[in-house]
Predict the 3D structure of the following.
Amino acid sequence: MIQVGGRLSRLVRIFYTAIVVAGVVVVYDWVLMLGQETELIWMQRWSLMTVLYLVMRYIGIPYSVINVLSHMPLVSLTDAG
């Protein structure tokens, strides 16, 4: 039974690590695309699609950051235990 608990613990750590990695990728993508977004979205004439794009984009980024921060204490930074 101890072996099953150890496997489960490892799977949970892998899951939380994957959440953190996904969140970091979202923020990294946002930083990389900020220049193009400024040119192609913010400087153009606004439409319903522009507003929808910006709402979805800027709701997703805080959600991702909050999600990462909420799982951060559960991710081990060492190989121990």
About this structure: The CA atoms of residues 38 and 63 lie 21 Å apart. The chain has a mean pLDDT of 80.
